[in-house]
Hints:
Layout (H helix, E strand, L loop, with lengths): L2 E5 L2 E4 L4 E8 L6 E8 L6 E7 L5 E3 L7 E6 L4 E6 L8 E9 L7 E2 L3 E6 L1
Parallel strand pairs: 2-11
Antiparallel strand pairs: 1-3, 3-8, 4-5, 4-9, 5-6, 7-8, 9-10, 9-11
Amino acid sequence: QLQLVESGGGLVQAGGSLRLSCAASGRSFSSIELGWFRQAQGKEREFVASIRWVGGRTNYADSVKGRFTISRDNAKNTVYLQMNSLKPEDTAVYFCAARAMWTSEYGYWGQGTQVTVSS
Length: 119
């Protein structure tokens, strides 16, 4: 089993920054990919960014490219999402998730953390 715990959400003004953290524990990370997703009120959950634990290959949604950066700290078993130039439309609950590299499904999810961007 893999446990994921997010932190770092909050209220910020448009143009500001936040950094989300996702602490992972419970199993080997050598063959997993960590991702961030978000779900705004009344909308479907959407992909934000992902990073492979080994190798560090990253992927981003077009809506956040150039503003958000995903990174990992292997020693701390933690993945980060640095969010800059935040916009009101970035307001959502942000979830950390993980998948094994041999499956396309993210099978492990954190509890989510609220990010609110005021205009």
